[in-house]
Amino acid sequence: xxxxxxxxxxxxxxxxxxxxxxxxxxxxxxxxxxxxxxxxxxxxxxxxxxxxxxxxxxxxxxxxxxxxxxxxxxxxxxxxxxxxxxxxxxxxxxxxxxxxxxxxxxxxxxxxxxxxxxxxxxxxxxxxxxxxxxxxxxxxxxxxxxxxxxxxxxxxxxxxxxxxxxxxxxxxxxxxxxxxxxxxxxxxxxxxxxxxxxxxxxxxxxxxxxxxxxxxxxxxxxxxxxxxxxxxxxxxxxxxxxxxxxxxxxxxxxxx
Length: 256
Fold this sequence. Notes:
- The protein is 11% helix and 15% strand.
- By secondary structure, the protein is of the alpha/beta class.
- Strands 6-8-9-10 form a four-stranded parallel sheet, covered by helices on one side. It has a two-stranded parallel sheet with strand order 1-2.
- The N and C termini lie far apart (72 Å).
């Protein structure tokens, strides 16, 4: 019913539910809506539900494995326990939230299959956020203002071999280092460090070659992009032909 904007608990405990299409975009609250729906796999218009302010326990204890369309839910004020005890493996995106106080407590807790997770800008509490996520290997935290009181020993409780990325010189980084700086199982890193950041690889001849410093556009591209999101790697060589470039890329066998 489009006139009912609060859809809290709409399908709670419906173990036969597999997926839902075209929920009304007027809905403002999805709290516990799929909680306990153990066979639930998809919701196909979540990206258009821009009025939603809460996904509190929305997918808790559900069979959801991948979430791909959260990019337009910028008004979320609560993501607390959103995927707690679910079958989630990986979320593919979150928007920057229009808040600095969204609650992320228990957001991904007890997700035994989770390998990658995202905390968006706007979240300020990560108590038990990833607790007992034993398969988790990477967490990207884009929120910059999380105080030390909200990142504790419970945040990554029982997580092992985990890399956590955040922005440098932020309150969040300081809080993470305070709680996990000496941990042997949780490593705190900055976006842009090492090979974790996606690369843009430039191939070509003298037009792109680093030997032509005064016209080297890949270096200028890196300056424009910054180093948080992409690293530009210049593999161009002056005087090179396409056949040798292809060989260096591995497409042709190179012989001496």
